Amino acid sequence: GENVEQHPSTLSVQEGDSAVIKCTYSDSASNYFPWYKQELGKGPQLIIDIRSNVGEKKDQRIAVTLNKTAKHFSLHITETQPEDSAVYFCAATHQAAGNKLTFGGGTRVLVKP
Amino acid sequence: DAMVIQNPRYQVTQFGKPVTLSCSQTLNHNVMYWYQQKSSQAPKLLFHYYDKDFNNEADTPDNFQSRRPNTSFCFLDIRSPGLGDAAMYLCATSRLQGGGSPLHFGNGTRLTVT
Question: Which of A90, A99, A103, A107 is best to mutate for the B interface (most B CBs within 10 A)?
């Protein structure tokens, strides 16, 4: 089955700096890679996703890159703000898995004012 | 706004006393999921419904059951809660079962077992 590893487990950045979270996956058949942000006391919320036919996707201050050959994908947050503080989860799945997501272990991001 | 609503937000039950958690959605999505999330861990899929078809994960204990009486509602029943079942329970929906259809999560029910 799929295995997703996520690093780092905690990340502290100064407001305005960039944050990068990296994930690797094991199943070369995986073709959908979402990122979820979970704030304290809330459910995970999708912030960006990427499919295997695309190498990079941006949405304002958030970008995701995918390297299919190396089987890794990364989340980049630029100009971080205190409201970016949360736990971020990467995930991977493919159609044959019936949309069952395999999550990474999560990264707790703290943006210091 | 279309959304996934979980009630209650906090639930306290006694060891061995059955408890039911509820989830409703206004997204009209075909698929509904139940996840268990323990502190500082990723969500763990318990089971999901594709329309009325129930799909159980192999490692989900028999103590956990689910019902989906209609498209909008889904329930999680824990027949005999143990201390190890204390967790956040998350309901999610997606429009499709395959092809990377994004999940929409509710804000969860935090279950305490005393």
Answer: A99
What does the buried/exposed string (b/e) look like for B27-43 if buried means 16 or more CB atoms within 10 Å of the residue's CB? bebbbbbbbbbeeeebb
For residue A8, is the peptide bond before it cis, meaning its omega torsion is within 30 degrees of 0? yes
Distance separating alpha carbons of residues B104 and B93, to the nearest angstrom? 5
Per-residue pLDDT tens over the stretch A35-51: 999 999 999 999 999 99
| Residue contact B105–A43, C-beta within 8 A | yes
Pick the more confident residue, B97 or A26. A26
Q: Whole-angstrom Cα distance, residue A32 to residue A1?
A: 15
Interface test with A, best of B53, B105, B109, B110 (most A CBs within 10 A): B105
**The pair of three-digit structure tokens given for residue B112, joined into one six-digit string:** 């305490």
First vs last C-alpha separation in chain A = 41
